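for ur thesis appendix - ABC transporter domain-containing protein. copy paste whatever u need, i formatted it the way the template wanted (i think)
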Amino acid sequence: MVEQSSATNEIWAKDLTYKHAHEVEPSLINISFALPKGTRTILVGANGAGKSTLLQILAGKRLLTQEGTDVRIKDKDVFRQYPPGVTFLGTEWAMNPVVRGDIVVSDFLNSVGGYRHKDRRDILLDILDVDLDWHMHAISDGERRRVQLVMGLMGQWDVLLLDEVTVDLDVLVRDDLLTFLKSDSETRGATILYATHIFDGLDTFPTHVAHMHLGAFVTPPTSWPFSDVTAHGCSPRLYNVALEWLKKDRAHRRELERNGRKARGANKSEVPSDSETFYRKYDYSH
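the 3d part is after this line
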């Protein structure tokens, strides 16, 4: 149950169910949660659990049509009244052909307002170890990701939605970035919701941890570190908590597959598929 109301929480969702298309199963099922201002929440879940879909909805990238659903940031509808001060950073940015063009990083950052945020921009340039003379088309995915983070974080955001954006960073830069984000959140009361599969070094970062499985919350945002470790059946290290949760998720999914859910993995049938029959017929490698 969502506590209090949208007016007393920075991020708030009630009865959120979402389908990518009418004929498919819901990607999110009856999601309700509330995050107070200044919290830092880690979203834990396997691939396909619904983390990215939830973040995209909060970022105003998907229209909600389900009757009764209400999703708000700063007490404003995330699609129709999108509030200022919200930053979403996802993995798709680095694949955009525009940011892979032959443009110098200094010019790129100035083109998106870097000159207006010089102090914070310069701090981030040092933390993320970015060379202003890099050419965007000639750098690695990890270096391009660093430029994205400078661009997205140099303004004074109030709510930060992160979807796997640290996956390309080396461990030193990632640690420096998380230290900056934690300090920024504590100093300014900014709110962070962060979906990641990398849990090393995160034990002291979050104020809350949440667990998603098959489109629903198994554990809604809960204060971290857990006050009763034994109740969650795992150690106080976030890596171990996440590992235990994901093992249980996989076991539950496989149980559903044994009871009729479409299975993943190898095709156990001895009858060859149509494609296997076709390609075997024209296989001249022997």
